[in-house]
Amino acid sequence: MIGVILAGGKSSRFGSHKSLYPLDGQPFYVHIYHAMIESGLERVVISSNKMLSQYFIDDIKMRGLNIEVIEDDIVYKECGPLSGIYAVMQAIPHEDYCVISVDTPFITPVALRYLVEMAGIHRKSAAIFYRDNDQYHRTIAVYRYELLPLIQQSLVTGKLALKEITQHNTTMIHVNRINSTPYWYENINTKEDLERVLKVRSGYYGTNNR
Questions:
Q1: Residue 69 CA: distances (Å) to CA of 41, 50, 54, 104, 145
Q2: b/e code 79-98 from CB counts within 10 Å (16+ = b)
Q3: Residues 12, 54: contact at Cβ < 8 Å?
């Protein structure tokens, strides 16, 4: 299984590129990379856009990380997470893909190991986390190569939401199944989101260190 970091968004609500933003001295994407490696994923790629890809190539080399950079498909560029997944499937076919968006820098190896384990047990087309009936974490998920035709159809028809490929034959995993920090699945869309989670983290470790 290949670890895929989705980092092709414009980060307009955040105000700067989230993937490069420092958290505890390292960019978001580096935190996700380490979680993937610690979870047992031996091959990690980052899917990005043309503007950022050279930065990632240079930064990855400088940090001595083992990450391959894959640019968005030229035909379906800037079509959100779906185009990033499509580009990776085209570049590295016939695999399973553990997909994490770069705005989830608090993801833990515990959560990833469980996700991969459940995907292996149930062998459905996808495995995703959810919180309740209307909050699904489709960018903390495993997607199989067999979804490629459905993904391409969604891109062609302009139906770009990930729910288009997860409505059927999907394993749903509630976030409460994970014995980890209470904020591991949080999406950081704004700097206010980051400040809020950091406050929660501070309280969590303060309580657990008593």
A1: 16, 10, 9, 19, 19
A2: bbbbbbbbbbbeebeeebbb
A3: no
Contact 31, 106 (CB under 8 A): yes
DSSP state of 125: S
Helix (H, G, I), strand (E, B) or coil at 131: strand
Phi, psi of 156 (to 5 degrees): -65, -40
Model confidence pLDDT, tens digit, residues 123-174: 999 999 999 877 899 999 999 999 999 999 999 999 999 999 998 999 999 9
Phi, psi of 25 (to 5 degrees): 85, 0
The token pair at 100 is 């994490």
Bridge partners, residue 143, by sequence: 97, 126
For 127, the token pair is: 């495995």
Q: Where are the beta strands (DSSP E) in the chain?
A: 2-7, 22-23, 26-27, 43-48, 67-71, 96-101, 126-132, 135-144, 170-174
User: Residue 48 corresponds to which tokens in the numbers above?
Assistant: 């990005």
d(CA 11, CA 189): 7
* Rounded CA separation 7/20 (Å): 9
pTM of full prediction above 0.85: yes
Q: Is 164 helix (H, G, I), strand (E, B) or coil?
A: helix
